[in-house]
Design goal:
Distance between the termini: 47 Å
Helix content: 25-40%
Radius of gyration: 28 Å
Bound molecules: histidyl-adenosine monophosphate
Strand content: 15-25%
CATH superfamily of the largest domain: Bira Bifunctional Protein, Domain 2
Order of helices and strands: HEEHHEEHEEHEHHHHEEEHEHEHEHEEEH
Shape: elongated
Number of domains: 2
Amino acid sequence: MSDRVQAPRGTFDVLPQDEPARAALEREARRTLGGAGYQRLETPIFEATELFARGVGEATDIVRKEMYTFDDGGGRSVTLRPEGTAPVCRAYVEHGMHKLAQPVKLWYLGPFFRREAPQKGRYREFFQVGAEALGSDEPAVDAELIVLLADLLQTLQVRARLRISSLGTPETRAQYREALIAYLRAHERELGTDVRERIDLNPLRAFDSTHPGTRAVMELAPRLFDALDDADREHFDAVTAMLDDAGVEWKLDTTLVRGLDYYTRTVFEFESPDLGAQSGVGGGGRYDRLVEQLGGPPTPACGWAAGIERMLLSAEPVEERAQVDLFVAYAKPQYAREALRLATVVRRGGLHAEVELAGRSLKGQLKQADRVGARYVALLGDEGTQLKDMHSGEQHAIDPGAVADAVRRERPVA
Ligand code: HAM
């Protein structure tokens, strides 16, 4: 045997036993978001690299070191999408969605790629469910989105705490940035190397540092939240009042930093106490300038994304097995054709049927029927067809054409 080929580090297979929980999560997402008028949009897995460089921000970790970027063979640089907001904005502009009634409310679910150091809850290919509302700056948009994520997490029985803050406008932020840079320069020697080297490039990231010296300095650092102008402050107060109305608990966290540069005003994150180091289950915020930055008309917008694997890690396990109505077994190999024919007829009648595919002995076939949880077994042999009720063990002769109806009569309504 030659060397075994393995999956790349930080990736995982979705095994059959993992599927029911993922399917249940997708169903809940569709129900929660669809029920609020959000429509599904799926964008390509790869995009022009420029979309993320311009959209997510050149100074972010994602763009600096986490993107899977390659030449597509035709001299164009493309990137496996590290996030979904910039692609949704691109699609919004490309399809003229600004001409529709606003806001345009969209959701998505699919794989994303970041070259991060793999650990529990942090992968290089992971799945997100996300929701974005484009075309309105009403605080009700922010509040609705946050309540929907809170409700989705609650339905999935994911325990999570909500932290929220406001980053104001880029203009307020520019002024604040100068003040923060001056403060960091004054404490330069106490800071970690990583932060010190990036004081001018991305001073806000200092709030995210785990370096003890940096943390101590940041305790007393000036806060952007205290520098917000009246309109931004009113927006924040309106959003949080609506969260109160909906009974969603929140906590102001003026140190909240998100790893993406496009945010304005509201930013938030749901954190699960059950997850260890990678505790962020979902997060997002408002991005009022992003659509314009990508070449579209001025379009205020807001959204979030939540990590599927992290939600599943902290959710209640889902036990779900497809109901097998019938297993078709046969006494001799010459009945194999007839067995497949019977299974096909029963399936076309809308029932779940499995058929013997491994040439087992009759005893082995009955064991297999039991293993898959079949309600009935149709047994084909020299004496015709028998139908065996696997609950009662009772068995009787039956015309093959009558099997589907006999099984259907006993089937509980789904
Ligand atoms: P994000 O905070 O970078 O935001 O990612 C959202 C969620 O994706 C995280 O809370 C986490 O659960 C999950 N996630 C991120 N990276 C990984 C990873 N390497 N492994 C496993 N799970 C991960 C965004 O992506 C923004 N696009 C959210 C947004 C939408 N903002 C506005 N609209």
